[in-house]
Amino acid sequence: MRLVDRFNEIERELPGDWAEATLVLVVPDAGRCERAAALLGPTNPGRLGSRIRFGTARRGAGVGPDGVRRLLRLLDQEGIRGALELVRAREEPRTELRRRESLRDQWKRALDTLPADWSDVYAEVRFESTDYIERAALLLAPVNPARDGANALRFRCAHHFGYGVSPEMATRCFERCDEDGITGEVEILHALSDTNPVGTQGPVWLLNGRAV
Fold first, then answer.
1. Alpha-carbon gap, residue 149 to 147, rounded angstroms
2. CB-based contacts of 183: which residues, under 8 Å, 6+ apart?
3. Can you tell me the distance from the alpha carbon of 45 to that of 21, in angstroms, rounded to the nearest whole number?
4. Could you report the per-residue pLDDT of 134-160, keeping only the tens digit for each?
5. What pTM does this model have?
6. Distance CA 104, CA 159 (A)
7. How far apart are CA 2 and CA 169, in angstroms?
8. Are residues 155 and 185 in contact, defined by beta-carbon separation less than 8 angstroms?
9. 192: closest CA among 148, 160, 152, 144?
């Protein structure tokens, strides 16, 4: 089994609210072990004999799971073979999980700040981990999201008519993300009031030379 496939297998077995994981890679060949440790350098690994110990973190200064996958692919490409195992995993503290506001509540709170006659919104949701992006894009499919950067999705919302998801549908989509344990921040980037499109489906924003 490739090392990256073994890592994916380990990650799937971790609890849904894991925050940090420590792994050990055993490479019997001394020369290949030294090379493996060098390739894993960004994780600040520790080596003892044929054992390389390194970690990954969903948030903070550590290398994230996607970064570890990229590094392990380098080892696979060089034909480095070894046994990868989980040493321990630390879950997110329950107090912090309770303190984090749900995506649904953030969305509702953002809408409450708009004037009563708002008509069009351009919004963004930034996820706390890049691991969430693919699953979130699926759950948020009805809002027709567009990816922006490594960990954000943007979408349009229309209050009564025109181009964009309804605020009620967006709320339901965020509820699905909350139920799946996906966390992040929701922000309304631009809002318009009392627009009256003639011959179009709604207003267009020009951002960085691109119409959205």
1. 6
2. 100, 103, 127, 128, 129, 132
3. 13
4. 899 999 999 999 988 778 999 999 988
5. 0.53
6. 17
7. 41
8. no
9. 160
Separation of alpha carbons 88 and 95, rounded Å: 21
Number of Cβ within 10 Å of residue 188's Cβ equals 16
Residue 91 CA to residue 83 CA, distance in Å, equals: 24
What is the distance, to the nearest Å, from the Cα of residue 152 to the centroid of all Cα atoms in its chain? 7
Does residue 127 sit in helix, strand or coil? strand
* Domains identified in the chain and CATH numbers: 3-95 (3.30.70), 100-205 (3.30.70)
Structure tokens at 65: 């799971």
Question: How many C-beta atoms lie closer than 10 Å to residue 97's C-beta?
Answer: 13
Q: 64: helix, coil or strand?
A: coil
pLDDT tens-place string over residues 158-193: 988 778 899 999 999 999 999 888 889 999 998 888
Tokens of 137: 């894009």
Give CA–CA dist 162/166, Å, rounded.
9
Nearest Cα to 18, choosing from 53, 54, 57, 45? 57
- Dihedral sign from CA coordinates of 7, 89, 50, 72: positive
Q: Which two tokens stand for residue 173?
A: 């989509």
Q: DSSP characters for 136-204? A: HHHHTGGG--EE-SSSEEEEEEESSSSSSB-HHHHHHHHHHHHHTT--EEEEEEEEEES---SSSSS--
Q: Which amino acid is at 209?
A: G
